[in-house]
Amino acid sequence: MAVEQPLATPAGDQSRIHDIGYRGYDGPRLGRGYARLSLYSQTLRGSYGLGRSVKSKVLPMLLFAVMCVPAAIMVAVAVATKAHDLPVSYTRYAIIMQAVISLYVASQAPQAVSRDLRFKTIPLYFSRPIETADYVQAKFAALASAMFILTGAPLLVLYLGALLAKMDFAHQSKGFGQGLVSVALLSLLFAGIGLVIASITPRRGFGIAAVIAVLIISYGAVSTLQAIADSRGSAGAVPWIGLFSPVTLIGGLSAGLLGGTNTFPGDGPSHAQGVVYLLVVLGVIAAAYGLLLRRYKKVGL
Amino acid sequence: MVQVTTFDDVTVIATESLSKRFPRVTALDRLSVDIGAGVTGLVGANGAGKSTLIKILLGLSPATEGSAEVLGLDVATKGAAIRERVGYMPEHDCLPPDVSATEFVVHMARMSGLPPTAARERTADTLRHVGLYEERYRPIGGYSTGMKQRVKLAQALVHDPQLVFLDEPTNGLDPVGRDEMLGLIRRIHTDFGISVLVTSHLLGELERTCDHVVVVDGGKLLRSSSTTDFTQTTTTLAIEVTDNDEHPDGTRAVREALAARGVDTDNDGGGLPGAGHILLLTAQGEETYDLVRDVVADLGLGLVRMEQRRHHISEVFTDSDEQRKEAAVHGG
């Protein structure tokens, strides 16, 4: 590390490089926006264990690999068999991999916020230029970005593979675009839910368990209910039941509005129902942001 | 009640009938005080309103009434600008155990707005100044309390603030660590040119470190004066002498000799080792030290100890000398 070299020392001071006396700082102070960006990048890097111990890199990196490997295999098969379309649509991929995504958000949301609560680092942030909203925005954006990387990367693999296999460019690009919009919404939704839950407890273990419970158990329950409703002849209720779990929210939104393949039993949501799904998703994201703001207003020093 | 106690002609902190009321308690009650550059001690028992005052001064908690300015900026409207120029060291633990001191302080420097390169350089400088060397690359979890306090101090200084708030920086330290921390606090002003507001519930340790002491109790200003005023009126000396053949009870001999010269003494009945052999007297300045030395030498006794007693906050509540000695006996 270049420790002893002053950055902006005037020329006359060159002889004092090794003086261990105190030097003031007259350089720029970049203020609130920069601090928020620093917190964002630190949290985003931390979400993949970068800048942290080797131990904390293992899980996020492993989950990232698990997300991408099936996409790579699908692409390899598609290229080898000269298929005309991918075996799985772009919007459906995240739904298939929902367990991995849920695990990721369950492990990284507590790492993003519970640590600061547990080690009482929060007062150090709020005694600096940033405000509560800056902290919440930085953490929210960072976790959502980390989720977007996790869910977007396999789509990119699929897309590049599809182009390599010389599939229809326009069709693939449209599907890829729809997929990206869908995983972007998924990232915001999951990050919001994960952060709200994790911000309540300073205990990391509780945070992980609670996030898994909300994401995975609700998905299991909703899917089961949908299957029962479908087999009992009340197929009309299937799309409405889907509103009650984060994974099916994204699935229904993709199928109803983005033209993705239907992941529900039966016919899947209509376009109008897709709009409802979109409103609910946006509502939940906004509510999560609001709850986080309220939570951190109370934390303070 | 506005007491102007500014020195160096620079007012760093000024409050004007500052009050903070919570539904059930009044944390600050019409506090008006001016604090100048230098090291200022803020003394008060737990719950006296010290932390509330710091929170208001950082612009994080609105005052119920009254106003306050820090570095000439209004706390109600210029909170962010104040926090850019001010450092804060909390009382409680605030360090994540799984990162190194360097990494942590660099991050905190960036949170204060320092560009990446400057943040790294200032971190290396600041950690060295607070006395952390090779260990700064190791995870904080393995540090001693003293080292953790230094990291906490470093993060408050890393952005070269004009003023730092140190909340109970000597808490949990052993006597040696305490002295080192107090020395460091002194240097923050003398060597770094940064003004300091340091809180403590021990008046004694602040007397040695601060230029100025503000005492609050129950959210009210009890006293605000320079440390020299304080020590002149409140220093209690404890002396212990040996016995010799001529004076089998040396303590009594000294007591009588001092009484003959018009200095009243008290026995230390604290029940500690040496109790009954320790005399307490109020020092009126340099002359008292000389007088004690001469008296003991004239009697041919050995002076085992002559020390300033650490004062407890309770002494400030008691006005008469008699009560002060009483407090020194019980609280010293």
Explain the overall architecture.
The complex is a heterodimer of chains A (301) and B (332). By secondary structure, chain A is an all-alpha fold. Chain A contains eleven helices and no strands. Chain A is globular. Residues 1-17 of chain A have low confidence and may be disordered. In chain B, 37% of the residues lie in helices and 25% in strands. A six-stranded mixed β-sheet of chain B has the order 6-7-8-3-9-10, with helices on both faces. Chain B has helices at residues 50-57, 79-85, 101-111, 116-129, 145-157, 175-190, 203-209, 227-234, 250-260, 286-298, 314-317, 321-331, and strands at residues 11-21, 26-36, 39-43, 65-70, 73-74, 86-89, 163-167, 195-200, 212-217, 220-226, 236-241, 266-267, 278-282, 303-308. The A-B interface holds A 1-7, 20-25, 27-32, 34-35, 38-39, 42, 51-53, 56, 115, 119-121, 123-131, 300-301 and B 51, 54-55, 58, 60-61, 80-81, 83-84, 86-88, 90, 92-99, 103, 107-108, 110-115, 117-118, 120-122, 124-125, 128-129, 139, 155, 159-160, 191-193.
List the helices and strands and how they pair.
The complex is a heterodimer of chains A (301) and B (332).
Chain A: H1 31-47, H2 54-80, H3 90-96, H4 98-118, H5 122-126, H6 132-164, H7 169-200, H8 204-231, H9 238-241, H10 246-257, H11 271-299
Chain B: E1 11-21, E2 26-36, E3 39-43, H1 50-57, E4 65-70, E5 73-74, H2 79-85, E6 86-89, H3 101-111, H4 116-129, H5 145-157, E7 163-167, H6 175-190, E8 195-200, H7 203-209, E9 212-217, E10 220-226, H8 227-234, E11 236-241, H9 250-260, E12 266-267, E13 278-282, H10 286-298, E14 303-308, H11 314-317, H12 321-331
Parallel strand pairs in B: 3-8, 3-9, 6-7, 7-8
Antiparallel strand pairs in B: 1-2, 1-4, 4-5, 9-10, 11-13, 11-14, 12-13
